[in-house]
């Protein structure tokens, strides 16, 4: 018997009041994503270079709720959706390995937050299935939000869910014998693309959840944390590499424009900007979109009492 997904809704009155707005936003993007936003974002990402500056364009927005450890984020209309893992008992290393794993499973609870542009929490969908409580990077196809929930250790297990935003209800789609840290609905090829722990392996499944193939990720620059589908079979992926430079640890952020047909990067850009807490701005979830001829990056790089940061490039010719 399948174990039951624990789901709870916060602020029930808001759920009822917000249903029609979410349904309207979903109707605008169903089947073909959001062509104007997606196409322009993909085109501008081909023009970003190492020397492109990212300037903080608005004041930091305090999120008025406990955010725990954010993972993936996107915006639909005037609402933000962010996945996060609440750690109740941390994992601990196993030496020698315990049951084939390098660490214990720990304990926790997954969250999918919906919040408004003032940083107020509207709804909270919770996830836990045995040792699977770690949600990853998320994607939205105009009808469903896609979210993986995995054990908090590599080479483990994961479940991929689709979430109906109007009802704020999750449905299990597939189970995987690996940690899946992010998922994208590839609308061009009508399939799902998942990334493993550290994004070392790409998985592809059909929409019924049947595995179609695995591909080693040739990109060694960053570990993808959050990926969002863009038009014509592309995805915007962001992440971070934890490096040791001269005995000092350093987080180097990065953005990749990923070609979902070949599962290779078209353009990869280092990001050196840091939050006030010293974290790379692409460490946790991000959301990229075109703003005229410029790109806007929205990010939540810090844990717990987080702030939402917004950065903009100059016009990209």
TrEMBL record:
The keyword Signal applies. InterPro entries: DUF6454, Quino_amine_DH_bsu. Residues 1-25 form the signal peptide. It comes from Sphaerisporangium rhizosphaerae. The keyword Signal applies. Keywords: Signal. This is DUF6454 family protein. Pfam families: DUF6454 (PF20055).
């Amino acid at each position: 018997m399948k174990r039951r997904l624990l789901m709870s809704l916060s602020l029930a009155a808001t759920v009822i009041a917000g249903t029609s707005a979410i349904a309207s936003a979903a109707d605008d993007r169903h089947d073909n994503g959001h062509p104007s936003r997606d196409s322009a974002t993909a085109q501008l990402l081909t023009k970003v270079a190492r020397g492109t500056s990212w300037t903080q364009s608005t004041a930091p927005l305090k999120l008025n709720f406990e955010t725990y450890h954010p993972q993936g984020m996107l915006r639909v209309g005037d609402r933000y959706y962010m996945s996060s893992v609440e750690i109740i008992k941390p994992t601990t290393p196993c030496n020698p390995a315990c049951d084939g794993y390098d660490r214990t499973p720990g304990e926790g609870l997954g969250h999918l937050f919906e919040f408004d542009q003032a940083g107020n929490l509207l709804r909270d969908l919770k996830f836990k299935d045995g040792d699977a409580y770690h949600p990853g990077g998320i994607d939205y196809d105009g009808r469903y939000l896609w979210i993986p929930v995995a054990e908090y250790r590599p080479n483990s297990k994961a479940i991929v869910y689709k979430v109906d935003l109007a009802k704020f209800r999750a449905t299990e789609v597939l189970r995987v014998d690996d940690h899946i840290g992010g998922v994208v609905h590839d609308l061009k090829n009508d399939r799902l693309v998942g990334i493993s722990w550290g994004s070392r392996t790409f998985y592809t499944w059909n929409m019924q959840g049947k595995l179609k193939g695995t591909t080693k990720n040739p990109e060694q620059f960053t570990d993808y944390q959050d990926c969002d589908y863009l038009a014509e079979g592309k995805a915007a992926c962001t992440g971070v590499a934890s490096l040791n430079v001269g005995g000092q640890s350093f987080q180097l952020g990065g953005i990749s424009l990923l070609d979902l047909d070949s599962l290779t990067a078209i353009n990869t850009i280092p990001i050196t900007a840091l939050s006030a807490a010293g974290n790379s701005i692409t460490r946790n979830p991000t959301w990229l979109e075109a703003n005229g001829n410029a790109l806007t990056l929205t990010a939540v790089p810090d844990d717990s009492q987080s702030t939402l940061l917004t950065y903009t490039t100059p016009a990209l010719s």
